[in-house]
Design a protein that fits this description.
The protein has 191 residues and is an alpha+beta fold. The protein is built from five helices and seven strands; from the N terminus they run ββαβββββαααα. It has a five-stranded mixed β-barrel. InterPro entries: Lon_prtase_N, Lon_prtase_N_sf, PUA-like_sf.
Amino acid sequence: MPIETLPLFPLHTVLLPGASLGLRVFEARYLDLVRECGRSGRTFGICLILEGAEASGPALPAAVGTEAVIEDFDTGGDGLLTLSLRGARRFRARRMRVRDNGLQVAEIEWIDEPPAGSVRPEHAALVTVLRHMLERRGGDHARAAGSCFNDAAWVGWRLAELLPLPDEQRQALLQIDDPHERLELLLSLVG
């Protein structure tokens, strides 16, 4: 099996599967990354920064991150490149190296998602919370099919995205593989 690599864009935020993220790009290493992704059709990874800054030298990223798919791009009024991203698959970084331009590239393995499971009765209150949040907020997920609200993984990712949580808690939720375990943690956080 060939080793798969993914360029990384460490940030002081967590991108979750299915979530959207707006990003302004100004550093040369990340402009190169976006050009490379545009030419090759590849994606890149977003990881939470554990130590360091977003700009300047390489930061220490979390080992579990989310693949970022570029949905749209534009140039802002300040001339900077702006990206609209969507979170896709989760991955675990095994080894990292830094290119000459400062861009981090990781050898990764994709994290297999468990088969879709229904929301359990003990987590039904979370579905109610999510429905109310989406009614007030609107956006992409407010128009989701009713069946999504019975999908434990989808409900968990949307709550992790929308609740006002510190990035460390979002990262902990990202690292949980079992959607029911994720909902249990979310229940303890909102309870």
